[in-house]
Amino acid sequence: MDMGQAEEAQNIENPEEQVTVQHPEKLVNETPESFVNGFNLVTEIIVGYGWYVILAVVVIFYLRHRFRSNISQLMKEKSDRDYYKKYDTKTALARQEGRQRALMRMQEENDIKAKELCEREMQKEEEKKLQRIEEWENHKQGKAYRSKHYQPKEEEPVATSKEKKPKPTSTFRPDDYNPLMGNARNNGFRPRQRSSRGG
Q1: Residue 41 belongs to a domain
Q2: Inside any domain, residue 55
Q3: Alpha helices in the chain (DSSP H)
Q4: Which of 78-82, 106-110, 134-138, 170-174 has the lowest mean pLDDT?
Q5: pLDDT(9) > 60
């Protein structure tokens, strides 16, 4: 027998030794009193005025169904009025004028930047012009003249006979290469020789 079965058999044989749970003499309801009061109030209202509540709900649903189109039309008209108030002619005109002022301000800034850029370009051109005149004057006087447009190439050093130039290697395959013949040159396909037999 297991230990558990032995204990059960012992408890059945000796019922006096079983542990008894003692209940308190007075049971206390732990439900909050406000909840009980609210529940009692609701049940009293339902019992006393239940038919009136059901009738009121039915009437509300009927009226809502009956006047739904009118209510939606009124709501649409209200939203249209709000929309037109928001976008009336005065407001639209004020917005348009504000937009025009902002565009004018941006255009003025852009014009100022373009004018500054044009002045810088003119200064650069003037400096180049003065530099060319100065170079031409130097050239007339016999001073060294060096054109900025013509840059002489650096001369390559002449190779002496003692230095050997590296032989360029070709990466191309030889002329007799055929990829269908295999990798080796001598192991390619050769047709069988015909023997001439007299007959």
Answers
A1: yes
A2: yes
A3: 3-13, 33-66, 68-86, 89-140
A4: 170-174
A5: no
